[in-house]
Amino acid sequence: MTILTTLIGTVAFALIAPVVGCLLAGLDRIISARMQGRVGPPLLQPYYDVRKLFEKESVSVNSVERTYVGCALLFAWVAGGVFFTGGNLLMCVFIITLSSLFFIMAAYSTRSPYAEVGAARETLQVMAYEPMVLLLAVGFYLAAGTFDVGDVLALDAPVITTIWLVFLGLLFILTIKLRKSPFDLSMSHHAHQEIVRGMTTEMSGPTLGLVEIMHWCENVLFLGWIGMFFVWGNPLSIILAVAVVLAVYFLEIWIDNNFARVKWQLMLKSAWAVALAAGGVNIAFLAFL
């Protein structure tokens, strides 16, 4: 039954997450335009862009590039299905990391120097945020007594009351996970950051369309992690969680438009420092005190 539930959840996530992610991406563009004094595109502009990509001729530098991207998208769907059906959070973390590794392999497979630089930067980003993500899973287990996300609905209080330092650490690395400035080192959605686009330099047409859909699904999953902190036995807590998620997403957009890209050394050092100071201290307090 658990496997069947996860399968149904994966299919539902694959259908719903791209829609929600597309709307969030459109909202991101509109808010960013307002912050920069522009009118901005319509809300559905990301959908129009991806539809145009799928209408283009399928051109690839090799036969495995799209396979790797397709695997990355598939594992992103599975990770979302596991999480939103109340499954194991640690398993969700491992699966979404596997998705990132397939995306890195897709960039390396093109043998383009620009894509390889982007892939190397993406690897550094994974090294930067992964310790905090693992501490998130451990902190959740200590707070809820289980790795199963669905069990938060039986708690008397939200998990943020006991692992609020872990939440702050997650907020910090969320900027990396959402590929927002100042930590958008591997690929940027802003033209002013660099001449070429890092990992997706050699990707075009339907392959690039799959990458955009994967990015939408990842955003929904990561924002779901944020909402998890504010859900407990009270059904009305879901409304609170949605409100917090929207506020956090607005904060990320504001950060994206007000901070320039940093060097990878600063990203790595700061992410590990936050993981140690926030996640490590919080988990040590719960485990030993």
UniProtKB/TrEMBL annotation:
Superkingdom in the source lineage: Bacteria
Transmembrane feature ranges: 6-27, 90-108, 128-147, 159-178, 238-255, 267-288
Major subcellular location class: membrane
EC number: 1.6.5.11
Keyword Transmembrane: yes
Membrane topology: Multi-pass membrane protein
Compartment list: Membrane
Keyword annotations: Membrane, Oxidoreductase, Transmembrane, Transmembrane helix
Keyword Zinc found: no
Any GO MF annotation of the entry: oxidoreductase activity
Record Pfam families: NADHdh
InterPro entries noted in UniProt: ComplexI_Subunit1, NADH_UbQ_OxRdtase_su1/FPO
Name this polypeptide is given: NADH-quinone oxidoreductase subunit H
Organism: Adlercreutzia faecimuris
